[in-house]
Every structure is written in structure tokens, then in C-alpha cells.
Amino acid sequence: MNVTAARLGLLGMLLSALLLTGIGTGSSFLGPDRVIAALWGTGERMDMVIVWTLRLPRVALAALAGAALALSGALLQRATRNPLAAPSVLGITDGAAVGVLLFLTISSDAANHLTVPVAWQPAFAGLGATGFALLVLLLGGRHRADPLRLLLYGVALAALAKALVVLLLIVGPVYRASQALIWLAGSVQAAQGRDVVLLGSVLGLSLPVLILLARPLDQLRLDPDSAFATGLPVAAVRGAALALAVALAAGAVSVAGGIGFVGLLAPHAARLLFGSRAAPQLIGAALLGAAMTTGADLLVRLAFQPLEVPVGAVTAALGAPFFLWLLNRRGDPHA
């Protein structure tokens, strides 16, 4: 067994331990044996209700959202050849926030009650995320998808989306503002089975495309002229990677909110642990992203019980210092 496979195996074991601990942690603690028995359908009736109805959706959604955001970040960084690229850079996260605030504003009546089922909220979030990302890609496409221009358009449109979010928070229903703010920070506390199915479907449909893209993404590490000389259709591969990154990030933020920095941190950590080849980096990034969000959700449940603190608060607290370090490192010519 080579080093990369061994590290991936250890990371898989760590994630499994976090998942079991997350499912077992709550007002009544369940040991790993009781959790496994409930998952297999052989546990006590009460244990099965706790696991399948109350805890599994939350833990599963945290893991899936982390994996999707990490994969999205890895694809963006490879497609733009920029290590600072992340889902929020293309306006995906902030676009989703605009969609959610629009939903809460237009679907609330005079008494501040929702007039449509809240199940429509992920659809509005997904539309907002996709809309802003497509706008960035269309503007960037005018300049042959130049990576630097693409990032600059993303920063500008993300700032516009943030301004719209503030405006909608001010003019929207006051009593919905706290709900919106929790979603904006990134939270899985209200996870339901349909959210897990939705995001799991997005990841499942993305898997064949990721497999097909693995080798072209390795070639994309070359400069565009060299990659084209190897027979790679650079524009097509870059476009496919960007489209898949948008789909993964939009799916994640539509059901889990704006969990920050996972799409930046996980790909970098995966590159350090598993090297620069696409296949092990993508697998490692997905496992690391899932472990980060699962671990962060477990941490907030243990540290702030009985308060519900958004998981995005922890990932942002860890990610912001790393982002500053990365910016300083990038500015050092000897780094």
C-alpha cells in the first residue's frame, strides 16, 4: 500500500469516527455499538427513532455539504489556476443568500407568516446561486475566461449580492431576519431527509463527470498553450470544471447555507497531504471537507449546548486566519 492510499484510508477512518460520534451525541448519548445497531435496523426502537429521525439527517447533511463545497473549491482552483479561488469568489454563496432573502420577503404575508411551504427555500437559494455564478461566467467568457478577470468579476458580483442581502434584511419581514442570519452563517440544525436526498443526488450525478475530468484536470495544470499542445480542449475542460463546481456549490448552499472557507481550506490541505494529481486530491478534498463540517457541527453542539450555533461560525473562525496566511504567502516571492 502506497503512502497516498494509506493516508486516504486513515482519513476515511477519521471521518467514520466523526460520523458515529456525531450521530451518538445529543441530549442522550448513544455509544457506537448502539448507533451501528440502529443504523442496521437491529437496535432498540427508541434508538432507531433518535438516530434515523433526529440525528442522521443533520450529520449526513453536514458531511455531504462539506464534501460538495470542498470538491467545488478544488475544481475552481484547478480551472482558474488560482489557489485563492473558492465558491464564494464566483458569487455562488452570496447569490444563494439573495435567493433566500427574496423567498422570505415575497412569500411572507402582512402577519409575517409564510404563504408557501418552506420546502421551496432551497429552490430559491439554488436559483440565486446559479444565477450569479452564470453571470460571472458570462462576463468572464467575453475575455476567453481569463482566470484573473473571472475572479475579479466574481469579487465584484459577490459584493453586489452582499449589498442586496443587506437591503433585503432591512426591508424584509423583521421576524424572519434571525432565521435568515442563521442560514447566512451556514447551519445544518434544521436538516431533513429531503435535504440529504437532494444533495446526495447532486453528488451522485457529479461522480461520473469527476471521474472523466480527473485526467484532463492533470493536464490543465500546464499553461494553456502547453496543455493545448498535448491535445487537450482547454476551453471545454475548463468550462466543464467550472459548471460542475457551480452545481456542487449551489447544491450545498441551497440546503446548508453559507458555510464558509471549506471550499478554500480542504483543497489546500488535500494538496499538501496527497500531492497535486487530480484523482487523489479530489478524493482527499471531499473526505477533508466532510470531516471539517462534521467536526465543526460536533464541536458547536458540545461547546454551546443547549444553544444552536451555526456550523459556519466555526469554519469561518478557522478559515479566516488561514486565508490571511495564504494571502501573505502568495505575496512573498520566496514562498
Automatic annotation (TrEMBL):
The keyword Transmembrane helix applies. The keyword NADP does not apply. Keywords: Cell membrane, Membrane, Transmembrane, Transmembrane helix, Transport. It is a multi-pass membrane protein. Its main location: membrane. The chain crosses the membrane at residues 56-76, 88-106, 118-139, 151-176, 196-214, 226-246, 252-270, 282-303, 309-327. Pfam families: FecCD (PF01032). PANTHER family: FERRIC ENTEROBACTIN TRANSPORT SYSTEM PERMEASE PROTEIN, FERRIC ENTEROBACTIN TRANSPORT SYSTEM PERMEASE PROTEIN FEPG. Belongs to the binding-protein-dependent transport system permease family. FecCD subfamily. This is Iron complex transport system permease protein. It comes from Limimaricola variabilis. The lineage of its organism: Bacteria, Pseudomonadati, Pseudomonadota, Alphaproteobacteria, Rhodobacterales.
